[in-house]
Amino acid sequence: MVANIAVSEQIGELMIHCKYGCYYNETLKRFVADSTKCPSTFRMNQRRDHENDCDYMPIDCPNNAGCPPLLKKDLEDHLRSCNNVHCPNKKYSCDFIGTQDELEEHLKSCRFEGMKEFLRLTDEKVTDLQMHLNQKDQEIEFLRSMLGRLSERLETMEKSVDMKLELVERNHSKIMDEILDNRKDISALTEEMSHINMRINLGATAGAYDPISMFKCKGTFVGHLGPVWCLSAMGDYLFSGSTDKTIKVWDTSSSYKCVKTLEGHSGIVLALCNYGNKLFSGSQDCNIIVWNVETYENCQVIKAHDNPVCTLVAASNMLFSGSLKIIRVYDVHTYELKKELTGLNHWVRALAATNEYLFSGSYQTVKVWNINTLECVRDLETSGGSVYSIAITNHHILCGTYENCIHVWELNSFNQLETLMGHSGTVYALAVLHTASGTKVFSASYDRSLRVWSMDNMICTQTLVRHQGSVACLAVSRGRIFSGAVDSTVKVWQ
């Protein structure tokens, strides 16, 4: 559900009293201000900031639950005279309790004071070990769940094979009889098949089966602890961002293993793109982090937006980031904010760029921007719901929408050519692959499938179904397609 921002802002402007400055009047049957308590009034959207730090907030003495209730403003005076001050080494079994002055004398002779640095380091090591143990437990649970799924699938396949074997045995004699009866027709059928094969080889049939262009799943990357929302490929390495707030680096040349896990975001990683030797990652925490892909070091943190960073693309020495109703343009080398592109009416969920244009998708509109002047030169309207993905081929503009369809425009004239139907869920991602048999466009959808479209005749030539959850992102590298999904896996297609 999308929040009503206008109403939310109006509510946030209402003036209210601090809850620590009011009491319930039984006579009036409502809350009224108490002049002996907090006198502050403020806007409703400032309530949490004030009340979390209000001097009239009731608190307990941190030294002993037996002390009388206090107001926050009186805590400092109370602590100077409190008789229940514990030794800071209490967690190491020191049972001293006294006043602040007595504590200072005690610390001079406390047997734990001299060992506190050693004890602190020991605690840190124990905490690190516990954290690693918890992480291993999570990985074990994930592997167990995957093993359970595989076992269920294997059992289902065994039952299916048994049923089919029984059917084969039951019909074996009948089939043999039919074969004997049909021997006279073999020569005629063989001749007909030769004609069909000739037509297939010559490509006479539209949409003919071409085994060279059929894609198959070649492997699965497993390691993320949550859905995979974004992918970016660079040479032999693939980068994936996830709900677990990490970016994993996969070797796709030989080992097909995770070689590094990049940590730095405090929210879901929603967008990735690369430029030169740099990787840019955008997150729900509203920041963009710049990574050196040679050393995997965090080079820079850009405070990018006031809302989550939905999408990123880099071109012409510029980094474009999309968020709520805005696209910000940064210098890809200095990270300086160069311009803000406005006039957008919703979340910017998709960006794509060529040498001439930047394409942005927001609500039901694809905007075309001149990449040199950063001025909007064209609006392409859709009729299939909000735009979630954009891809550019040598001749076409494609966008996937919330209403399960893919719109196609001619790149030079911006005339709409076709609407591709087939998916039964939102089209979250599009990717272009140039093959010997022509340009192919891959689409990833909420319906857990990938579809392969031939741009020569705008026909779906293959449907790939291997993921156990919605397919959220795609990446292309060296003739291979990588797909990330809500099932926490990344699959390789070739």
Automatic annotation (TrEMBL):
Chain positions of all zinc fingers (TRAF-type): 50-113
Domain of life: Eukaryota
TRAF-type domain span: 50-113
Coiled coil location: 133-160
WD repeats mapped onto the chain: 221-254, 262-301, 420-463, 464-494
SUPFAM superfamilies, sorted: TRAF domain-like, WD40 repeat-like
Entries under Gene3D superfamilies matching the protein: YVTN repeat-like/Quinoprotein amine dehydrogenase, Zinc/RING finger domain, C3HC4 (zinc finger)
InterPro entries cross-referenced by the UniProt entry: WD40/YVTN_repeat-like_dom_sf, WD40_PAC1, WD40_repeat_CS, WD40_repeat_dom_sf, WD40_rpt, Znf_RING/FYVE/PHD, Znf_TRAF
Gene Ontology CC, one term: nucleolus
Biological process according to GO: Notch signaling pathway; ribosomal large subunit assembly
UniProt keywords, alphabetically: Coiled coil, Metal-binding, Repeat, WD repeat, Zinc, Zinc-finger
GO molecular function: zinc ion binding
Identification of the protein by name: E3 ubiquitin-protein ligase TRAF7-like isoform X2
